[in-house]
Each structure stands twice: as structure tokens, then as C-alpha cells.
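Thread: Serotonin N-acetyltransferase, structure

OP (GT): Posting the sequence first so everyone is looking at the same thing. Length is 183 residues per the record. Can we get the C-alpha cells written out before standup tomorrow? I want them in the notebook alongside the other entries.
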Amino acid sequence: VHLRSPRSSLGGQRRHTLPASEFRCLSPEDAISVFEIEREAFISVSGDCPLHLDEIRHFLNLCPELSLGWFEEGRLVAFIIGSLWDQERLSQEALTLHKPRGTAVHIHVLAVHRTFRQQGKGSILMWRYLQYLRCLPFARRALLMCEDFLVPFYQKCGFEALGPCEVTVGELAFVEMQHPVRG
């Protein structure tokens, strides 16, 4: 029996089966990869993660359409997870609830894998996410909370500061920011 290698049957060219770069909504099957990136990105800075694994699974089951992952050759390199919120400002409840009738998209977390940081991927992903939100008829604005040192990053993405956020996590205080999606 003579076996030919796939390379020789394709004239020496390598056949790619995974796209070089892909943006798609996350699924519950992506939860572990999401958590690994988030844990590495946040624990070294703040000592805690915005979302724990069970909360990631919770949001990816309830509202996967409000998440966006950036995959390169099938590997998750950056992501955003959001949920809907139905009040003017964020409160402690916003950390764990999804309000299906809400018109504000609460961005819980944006994280980039450590080997892909400082390459502009966070800005590109946020731009793509905001463009995607414009296609959702119920989305009116995006809300997030961040530490002071991240305010300039989000301002460059088009967010405006609303002032101190009511939400605190341990010793951490946050600035609340918003971006109009339509209106």
C-alpha cells in the first residue's frame, strides 16, 4: 500500500482549515479559555477577576450575542463579555444580572491574552464590538466601569466618563463610562 501525504496531493501547498483571524460571539464552550485569559490579565493588576468561571458561563448561556471573541488560527486572543442593563447607571446588581428588556449594554470585561498585548488589539476589538452593537435594534448605549488608569484608553475608544461608579469591589473604586450606540 502506498500512501501519499496531503502535501504532495495538493501540489506542495499547505491547506489551511482555520481562518487566520475571526471575530465571533462566544459560546459556553469558550468559557474556560475566556477565564484563563481574564484571570491572567486581572489578578496581577487588581487581585480579582471581574467575572469568575461560573459567571462567565452564566452570561455566555444567557446572552452570548452580547459577547465577542477574537480568534487567530482557532485560538482565543481577546474577548468582550456584555449583558443588558435597564437603569441609567450601574449598581452592584449589574455585576451579575442580565436584564433582557434593557437598552444599555453593560460591558463586564475586555481582556487580551498576554502575548497579544500592546498591539492595539483591545482598541480594534472594542471598535468592532461597538459597530456590532449598532446592528442590535435594542441597544442604545454601552456602559462600563474601569479603574482610573484605564479612563484614557476608553476615552480613545469614544467613551465619556460619567463620574464615580456606585459599584465597588473590595477596596477598588471605579469610574463609570458610556458610549452612545444610537440616538
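GT: Both are above now. Quick notes for whoever picks this up: Residues 1-10 have pLDDT under 50 and may be disordered. The first helix runs from residue 6 to 9.
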